[in-house]
Amino acid sequence: MIDKTAPAWLDRDLVSGTKPPSPPRKAIYRLSIYLRCLQKLRDNRVDMVSSAALAKAAGVKSTQLRKDLAYFGQLGTRGLGYNVEALRKMIGDVLGQNRLQPVILVGVGNLGSALLRYGGFRKEGFEITAAFDLLPKAAGQFTVPLLPMGGLADYILKNNVKMAILTVPAINAQSVCNELVAHGIQAILNFSPTVLETPENVVVNSVDLAVELENLSYFIR
Amino acid sequence: MIDKTAPAWLDRDLVSGTKPPSPPRKAIYRLSIYLRCLQKLRDNRVDMVSSAALAKAAGVKSTQLRKDLAYFGQLGTRGLGYNVEALRKMIGDVLGQNRLQPVILVGVGNLGSALLRYGGFRKEGFEITAAFDLLPKAAGQFTVPLLPMGGLADYILKNNVKMAILTVPAINAQSVCNELVAHGIQAILNFSPTVLETPENVVVNSVDLAVELENLSYFIR
DNA sequence: AATTGTGAATTGATTCACAGCT
DNA sequence: AGCTGTGAATCAATTCACAATT
Q1: Which domain holds residue A33?
Q2: What is the average per-residue pLDDT within B138-146?
Q3: pTM given for the model
């Protein structure tokens, strides 16, 4: 009996020495979407779902959904579909949603303070545990400690923080980013409208609001 | 003499009837990045730039930059590079940055009010001209009118609004989206963590903060 | 000599088509 | 019969390599 959860390439690779194909980055994004849909299904007490139905909900083609999932093992049952709870659990594990990640936020301006107040993360397994700013003021209005930049290194080390949200003005973004990286941050969600230079081993996702608007603007005729 | 600003495929197409290759969507995103870099160069009184230098600043390969630009014509001068101001102007035109677009924002919660206060758009040619909410309160704290949902249709029509930013809770996102589309909105920047269903001719860009964090989380080991 | 513009080659992602389970 | 898993085929994007131009 073959381990049902092992992807088929495993067998081949043990023999051939080939590397397992690593999932394309876009597939990882889609995993998050699937996860959201599965959570909704679970809330509605659905317990099996076909690739066609789940794909519809996620706004993709069913073959793409199956390919995406296949990177992580044999997760469905032919003729029946996928078990909602098992799949949800599995994707959560892959995305690291299950170990609650501490996240710090740097730059408490307009956008920064909105994100501090925005609750949407906790549910997904993230928690902003502290915020930093050059001149921390109005600390009282947040539920997390608002600290001066001086305390950054210490806090990251003591709390084993690996992720940061960067919401400082463009002009300071690179230098603050360097500081984060120097102290061990491995992943940055960047809202400053700048291209950040980082070492290979640090991941950056940028959300640039002006770029998104400009992009839309191109498509309206 | 051949028009220097016409892409080479034009000639062929007049003969062959082939469609011009339409730029990939990602190229349009990169155009915005290039534009930012060009603005910075202009501010520093630089007036020519090579594809290598500009690409470096934008974080892409120089060949990619050239391919991206080639979709829009012959913009550089061999041996010399690109004229900063001319290129900036051209990209601004392509992205529609030059006609100032009115944008409305729907859903004035945490994130919505932060975006209203966030000035970063105006500089890029966009202006949030009004905000809508089911229960508009604290209207005084914003510089734009905060209106009840009832006034939506009328406002869109009277002001010829084509773009909207959607920052309502996930549960309401689809229905509000439908309403926007019904009244003529053609492009939506969606911050609600949902997959929106829209007709073909409406463009949606989604920014899902939880998805971005989850994605980072996958990459930290 | 420097640097763009662009076909050709390559790499990557998506979709098809169907074999293989349940 | 229904639905997944996956190799092969297609489609799209990126990079290479070099001719063309200043």
Answers
A1: 8-95
A2: 84
A3: 0.91
